[in-house]
Amino acid sequence: MRSDSSTDFGRKIAFLRKKLGYSQAEFAQKVGRSETWVSQVERGVRRIDRMSVLERVADALDTEVGELTPEKSWPLAQTGKPAAATELALTLASNHALQALPKSPQPVDIPGIEERTSHAWKLAHSAQYEELAILLRDLITEVETASDQAGNETPPAVRQSRARMYLAASAMLAKLGEFDAAWVAIDRATASAHTLKNAHLLAECAFRLAIVFQASRRFDMARRVAGDAANALSQTYPQGDSDPATYALLGALHLQLATASARSGDGDAAYRYLNDAREAAEHVHDGRNDYNTEFGPTNVSLHEVAVAVELGDAGRALRVAEQIDDGRLSAERQGRFLIDVASASAQLRRTDAVINALRRSFTVSPQQARSHSRARTLIADLLRSHGDDPRVKELAGQVTSN
Fold first, then answer.
1. What is the pLDDT of residue 269?
2. Residue 385: other Cβ atoms inside 10 A
């Protein structure tokens, strides 16, 4: 029997589908379902009872979950921007040049700026976003004031710290959904990298921009920026270059290409780019962190897990995951990896494995797990199917806690 809410929901799906010009068959292909399934949903005969499927439908219709259904059973998917992200975005919006005008030039503490910039990246890698927002709020003000007052005489060390500072900001903002602000931060970092004529730093800027495009689901743009940067870097540093940093940046860019290809449904290209990254990793040992990419053999394996999850190959994802020693990863990378493991386990309907991986993710990097859309989706699905399980209630409580 059809309920009024199911019928209204189905009509909304049909209206938005037709508005975008998709036939039922075309839309079914986009969401990975049959044409019959789409027809049943639009007629109100079938309900969508999994958050992951609802999000896929919303993505295909270029809308938000909350716009499709008012049901209160999806609360974990409807999340506002974390306060730390809003605070940092407001910092970027400040007019530092105007604020610096009435001030007398002050001595620039270059060692202090470099030390705090390095600490900013430590906070980013450990997914301590609230602390990072506070640090960057003051650091951005100080660096911009120093740069505005020095003008063309700004020391190279300050210009480099300015680029690295804004890249750390972009990494956090992209994670927390402030994509426009992240793009602004990368643009400022790129401007500083240009003044230094530093090809490696420019490649890192492209790498970070590709991540922003990935997070905002602009996969074609992610592939373009990562591909262009990889080609330019290869031309600037021929294959005879033995610098591990060059290989690390090339490998990291190829991993972005692999991820964007997987999210676009191009499995052949995704695994081809993974192989390119694996070749680059032969020149970079684990434990390095060139240009904050954390690139190395283990990072390639992490991305193979993520790519397999995106392509629906849960078996491959879990087989690769079993070979990874996640204890050697940064808190941010380990937390992301565990969410991918949970996603693969969910594809195979291994409920206990999903719960265990998510619980570990919250232990390792709680701020990241709390804000990660895929973690919230998995927990929302668990609530609907295993809402009485105390472990699931605990996870839901962690998502909604401050």
1. 94
2. 12
